[in-house]
Amino acid sequence: MNLQEKLQRLEQQALAEIKQTDNLEKINKIRVHLLGKKGPITEILRGMRDLPKEQRPQVGSFANAVRDELTAAIAKQKEQVELILNSKKLEREAIDVTLPGVPVKAGTPHIIMQVIDQIEKLFLGMGYQVVDGPEVEEDHYNFEMMNLPKDHPARDMQDTFYITDQILMRTQTSPVQARTMEKHDFSQGPLKMISPGKVYRRDTDDATHSHQFHQVEGLVIDKHVTMADLKGTLEKIAQTVFGAKRQIRLRPSYFPFTEPSVEVDVSCFKCGGKGCQVCKQTGWIEVLGAGMVHPNVLKMAGVDPQIFGGFAFGLGPDRFAMLKYGVDDIRDFYLNDVRVLEQFSQKE
Ligand code: PHE
Q1: Which helix (H) or strand (E) covers residue 98, if one does?
Q2: Hey, which of 141, 255, 257, 315 would you mutate to test ligand 1's pocket, going by the most ligand atoms within 8 Å of its Cβ?
Q3: Where, by residue number, does Mg(2+) bind (predicted)?
Q4: Ligand 1 centroid – CA 176 distance (Å)
């Protein structure tokens, strides 16, 4: 076999091998072996020394052509293998956009906010305005304007966080009554407002007491407001929060800023009034305080009690939520344990 034939055979074998190789590493090995210094082509070319001079150029250029061809074949195969590997990789990494996603954990309004929202909706629907007041309040509004002068014994009903002699954390939302009445222009019509918000008392926290809790104040001032209006309004609240079949009953009570004052009970939503653990066998649950606005309160806010009068109420959304959902420790609302709070998640 002469050199040319050897080269031809090598060429054929090598081309076949290259075409079969589907692995980049192996392709590289073939390249190094075939075209390298110790490779078969170099080896064959070394044999040219034994050829007659006039044959050398012809064999030389044939050898170069074979080398070029193999080089090109290797490059082409490499390119093809890369292409296949690439498309396999794309296939592997493909995203199925039709797969259901991982649900995002969304928050939910706090249970107390849900109760407040429910009450706000009810009263907005009846034409009330929703008013905000400061939590850091003046003694003047929190007590004096609510008919609780200094040294009035009823101040002891609400243990107070004082900041200075005159400034305190409000113990009730009632000061918003005075603030709103002072500003209201009665020539424009009656005053109908609710005011939800946080209140503070110097209590030791336990299952039924929290040093910070919520109230919703309500106030209506007009020319001919009666206790029947109050009762109808309270019934509406009870039925909205505790169910359409609820009844209410009023018991005489005392607040310095209302006269007469009442404590309001709602018929037990658990047993319907027969008596159970929730209502302590009485059939009734105490839910809020209310009354007809005291003439002194009107006077101090610049409203003439000879012409105007009205009712006020104060309710506790914390207590509402506890009753409604059977939560027996108020602290559960404030520890912010997600496992507790997410049980009240609101699905719209
Ligand atoms: N402010 C009273 C309280 O905190 C509740 C109340 C408000 C009672 C309005 C009557 C009228 O106890």
Answers
A1: none
A2: 255
A3: 259
A4: 12
Q: What is the pTM (predicted TM-score) of this model?
A: 0.72
Say what the pLDDT of residue 78 is: 93
Take atom 6 of ligand 1 and give the residue whose Cα is closest: 314
Sign of the Cα torsion 324, 325, 331, 336 reads negative
The two tokens of residue 257 are 């800023």
Radius of gyration for the alpha carbons in the chain, expressed in angstroms and rounded: 45
Which pLDDT score is estimated for 201? 96
Cis peptide before 52 (omega within 30 of 0): no
pLDDT of amino acid 26: 92
Dist CA 123 CA 30 (whole Å): 86
Dig out the tokens for 345 from the structure.
Answer: 């998640």
Residue having the nearest C-alpha atom to atom 7 of ligand 1: 314
Q: For a pocket test of ligand 1, which of 168, 172, 254 has the largest count of ligand atoms closer than 8 A to its C-beta?
A: 172
Asked if residue 259 belongs to a known ligand binding site, the reply is yes
Residue ranges in the chain whose pLDDT is less than 50: 348
Please answer whether residues 136 and 262 qualify as being in contact, where contact means their C-beta atoms are separated by less than 8 angstroms: no
Q: Render 196-262 in DSSP notation, one character per residue.
A: EEEEE------SS--SEEEEEEEEEEESS--HHHHHHHHHHHHHHHH-TT--EEEEEEEETTEEEEE
Cβ < 6 Å from ligand 1: which residues?
172, 174, 255, 258, 289-291, 312-314
What residue ranges define each of the domains in the chain, with the CATH number in brackets?
3-92 (no CATH), 112-341 (3.30.930.10)
Smallest CA separation from ligand 1 atom 10, residue = 290
Query: What residue's CA is closest to ligand 1, atom 9?
Result: 313
Give the pLDDT score at 347.
59
- Closest atom of ligand 1 to 289 CA is 8
pLDDT in tens, 160-179: 999 999 999 999 999 999 99
- Which helix (H) or strand (E) covers residue 175, if one does? helix 175-183
For residue 267, what are its two tokens?
A: 């018929």
| Size (the chain), residues | 348
